[in-house]
Amino acid sequence: MQADKFVIPADMAPVKRHEKDTDVLRAQAGLYAFLGRCLEAEVDAALLSTLRGPLCKPLEELGVDLGDDVRSGDPLAVLADLGEEFAALFVVPGAVLPYRSAYETGRLFQPQADLATAAYRDAGFEFRNTLSGEFSDHAAVMLAFVGRLLERQVEAAETGDAEAATGWQRRREHFLQHQMGGWIIGWSRRARTCARHPFYRAILGLTEQVVWADICDIVDEKALQRLVKANRRPLMRQKTDHEFRKASGL
């Protein structure tokens, strides 16, 4: 696998449907962006305020229970608790590292990271890391990328460019199937079983549900069976470094 070999096959199966409701696509883009933010770094004061404000009711309507302390606890205590949980789940030795490379090989910064970088670049984005231990195949970056592709699809549809809208849709579906579909469901489930705080159990459960629902909508039964098998692969023994903590982003 090489970064410069990333292509969307010309003979890819036809798009099953052309999404016409841009409001639905825009909401879906926001959901992917939200999940990416929750998994890229610790919850900060701004995110906590958003969770208690404009996102409170929508999340409740989705049946997402973030926990009583997130809804009404002392902010400083909540942020400290969530920061500790974030490190335990995703950062310190023994954590469920949120990288495709780690999940599939037990090592960091493998060809899977090159493929992710190539996908971002091919779509006109650039991955930028701010710390040494940040790689492009982080679950949060991948989720954010899908959100960006949805945004581009909405923009094209709203300007009447059906060809471009279909192109963005194909790109998104290809990325979901071939770069996310074989690992992020299994990773989310394993991390969720390790989570102590209701917030991360809820976010990881929502990630699993959202991504799997989209994948089920775009692949055939045979491909779906392969992805299910891939997500059930045995847990790899991993070498970890406490500096690998945040995802950076596009």
Please describe the topology of this protein.
Blueprint: H1 22-40, H2 45-52, H3 56-61, H4 68-72, H5 75-90, H6 100-105, H7 111-122, H8 139-158, H9 162-180, H10 184-194, H11 198-218, H12 221-231
Helix pairs in contact: 1-8, 1-11, 8-9, 9-11, 10-11
Give a structural overview.
The chain is mainly α. It has a single domain (28-231), classed as TorD-like. The chain is built from twelve helices and no strands. It has helices at 22-40, 45-52, 56-61, 68-72, 75-90, 100-105, 111-122, 139-158, 162-180, 184-194, 198-218, 221-231.
Strand content: under 5%
- The total number of structural domains is 1
CATH third-tier fold name: TorD-like
Order of helices and strands: HHHHHHHHHHHH
User: How much helix, percentage-wise, in residues?
Assistant: 55-70%
Q: Please identify the structural class as seen in this structure.
A: mainly alpha
Number of helices: 12
Mean pLDDT: 87
| Quaternary organization | single chain
Give the number of DSSP strands. 0
Low-confidence stretches: 1-18
Give the CATH superfamily: TorD-like
General shape? globular
Radius of gyration based on Cα positions: 18 Å
Q: In whole angstroms, how far apart are the ends?
A: 22 Å
Q: State the CATH class.
A: Mainly Alpha
Major sheet characteristics: none
